Amino acid sequence: MKMHDIESFLDIFPQVESSYPFGPDAFVFKIRGKMFAYTFQSREESQSREEPFVTLKCTPEDGEVLTSAFSAIRPGYHMNKKHWISVKLNGDVDQMMLEELCGRSYQLVVSKLKKSDREALQALFVQAKLD
């Protein structure tokens, strides 16, 4: 999967905000101010050996299983290793699974939002389905 493809996919979730708060290499995706993903692709030639990857929120149990089952998945780069995973885009994780992991990350962060924020998101989702 290409970096542009994963960034476009992450941007389709409701109310997503994206920015480069850590510099030009890390593109961060948030919901209601809470990060659920970031993509990394080095822009400097001296660091071009680092493969592009996406870092996603996960449960500790899922993180353990995924890092042991896939060579392209490792504990989250510069993140809490129990709650985040980094997935190389050119590895052994197919597009469907990567998209599912992105959806899980989004839902995990949404589930931890304040009740009023969760209800507002749910109302937007229902309205979008009706339109």
Structure description:
The chain has 131 residues and is of the alpha+beta class. It has one domain: Aspartate Aminotransferase, domain 1, CATH 3.90.1150. The chain has four helices and six strands, in the order H-E-E-E-E-H-E-E-H-H. It has helices spanning 3-10, 60-69, 95-111, 115-130, and strands at residues 16-19, 26-31, 34-40, 53-57, 73-75, 84-88. The protein has a six-stranded antiparallel sheet, covered by helices on one side. This is MmcQ/YjbR family DNA-binding protein. It comes from Vibrio qinghaiensis.
What are the salient characteristics of this protein?
131 residues; alpha+beta; 4 helices; globular
Radius of gyration: 15 Å
DSSP summary: helix tally: 4
Strand order of the largest sheet: 1-2-3-4-6-5
Task: Catalogue the unreliable spans.
Answer: none
Please give a quick description of this structure:
This protein has helices spanning 3-10, 60-69, 95-111, 115-130; strands at residues 16-19, 26-31, 34-40, 53-57, 73-75, 84-88.
Describe the secondary structure blueprint for this structure.
Layout: H1 3-10, E1 16-19, E2 26-31, E3 34-40, E4 53-57, H2 60-69, E5 73-75, E6 84-88, H3 95-111, H4 115-130
Antiparallel strand pairs: 1-2, 2-3, 3-4, 4-6, 5-6
